[in-house]
Amino acid sequence: MGNITQMMLIGISIKPDVVEHFHVGVSYSSDEIKTYTHLFKEFCDVFTWSYEEMPGFDPNIFVHQIPMYPHAKLVH
User: Fold this and answer.
1) Cα torsion through 36, 40, 41, 44, rounded to 10
2) Is residue 20 over pLDDT 90?
């Protein structure tokens, strides 16, 4: 499992009741994390954070399902 990168959660919410965050790899430098955090905060109105923010889009376009056998044991 050498290809799995550890991630950390970066909160960028500016509205009190709205949760907005992104994940960034822990291998990024503190300067890169600050740059990305600033970028996401500056352009937070460009990104959608929930499906409710995309009225008119068919959910079948962006919601996917992974077909599985009904009695298969899930492995995490």
Assistant:
1) 180
2) no
